[in-house]
Amino acid sequence: MKEKDGIGRREFLGKAIPSALALPAVLHGGSKLSLAESGPSPTTDPKKNDRKIKIIAVEEHWATKELSEMAAQSWKARKDLSWRDPKVFSGSIPRLWDFEKSRLPMMDEYGIAMQVLSNGHPTFQQLNDAAIAVPLAQKFNDLQAEIIRKYPDRLAGFANLPTAADPKAAADELERAVTKLGFRGAMIHGHSNWEYLDAQKYWVIWERAAALGAPIYIHPNEPSSDSIKMYGGYTELMGPTWAWVVETATHALRIIVSGVFDAFPKAMLILGHLGESLPYLLGRFDEGYAMSLKGRKLKRLPSDYIKENVLVTTSGLYKPEALICAMNAMGPDRILFAVDYPFADPKASLEVFERTPMSDSHREKIYHLNAERWLRL
């Protein structure tokens, strides 16, 4: 028997099992990809870049010193965010605003043709006062546009939006940034003071993004003080180890289940770090949705939205097995290359990507063709 909303468990299993058995091919000839079928391995020395494939990296952060200081003050105000190892983060922060001595030489060294810039701190998602947040976001976007104009062949950008202060103003700033400044979408650092982008007040941003064809990149943010209690005594599980993954994946699922993509089918969400675990749990999401009480009725299964309204990037470090799984789940057309500069090592990022077995055509898609398509570069 079908449930009142959505599909029933039996119907779900009837659809899901054949789909699971027919994973998309990621090698020429239609075969599924595995590490055992790698074939000839490409060079693992990223400095060689012997094949001269163009590389575009799409989660590459920057900030001004002032913005970094604001972020540092917000971290100090929360005593439960003491997990950060200062020896690790202190070396990365100065590279956020250093283009001449750090960023551009690094790009040249590793053959990265272009970076898509984005704010490196969640500042704009924490400012509630529109009188402060809106002009500050505009100023930051203008400054970012000025930097991009200085290096038009090397840099592009995502807009920074004052979501917490004024969703309508945030949507207007997105439109200005895309149509006037030439930005390719926006990066939003997770929740806006514990409000998520599934809330109706933020749908104006999704509506505008869909109309502009501008993807929204959801970047991790720190969980609430209440959520952090589950990690009590385990600072090792905070941040990128696990807490950020849970926070960002939950945010994305809220957006999906809220019906945002039913209302705005052309809206596109980008998730870093190979999709914050979503590509690996598609069957679990569909099964759980079929079994759950539903406060709203979706037109499709949760996995359909993930495969049709979500793009994922390779930002951060991962294992080749994880990228293979993401390619099988999402398809090679929905994965974009990213480093997560300056917080991830570009050498390690390129090496692990080069070690991942895939066809040359798929490697080229992920390195630059997908970014050129989805971000109109």
Question: What does this entry show, briefly?
Answer:
This protein has 377 residues and is α/β, with parallel strands linked by helices. It is 44% helix and 8% strand. Helix 6 (167-179) packs parallel to helix 7.
How much helix, percentage-wise, in residues?
Answer: 40-55%
Number of extended strands = 8
> So what's the CATH class?
Alpha Beta
Shape, per Cα inertia axes = globular
Report on this model:
- The chain is of the alpha/beta class and 377 residues long.
- The chain has one domain: Metal-dependent hydrolases (TIM Barrel, Alpha-Beta Barrel), CATH 3.20.20.
- It is 44% helix and 8% strand.
- It is built from 15 helices and 8 strands.
- It has helices at 9-21, 65-77, 86-92, 99-110, 130-150, 167-179, 203-212, 225-228, 243-258, 260-263, 282-291, 302-309, 320-330, 346-355, 360-374; strands at 56-62, 114-119, 155-157, 186-188, 216-218, 269-271, 310-313, 335-336.
- Strands 4-5-6-7-8 form a 5-stranded parallel β-sheet. A 3-stranded parallel β-sheet has the order 1-2-3.
- Helix 7 links the parallel strand 4 (186-188) and strand 5.
- Helix 5 packs parallel to helix 6.
- The longest helix is centred in the middle third of the chain and has 21 residues, at 130-150.
- It is globular.
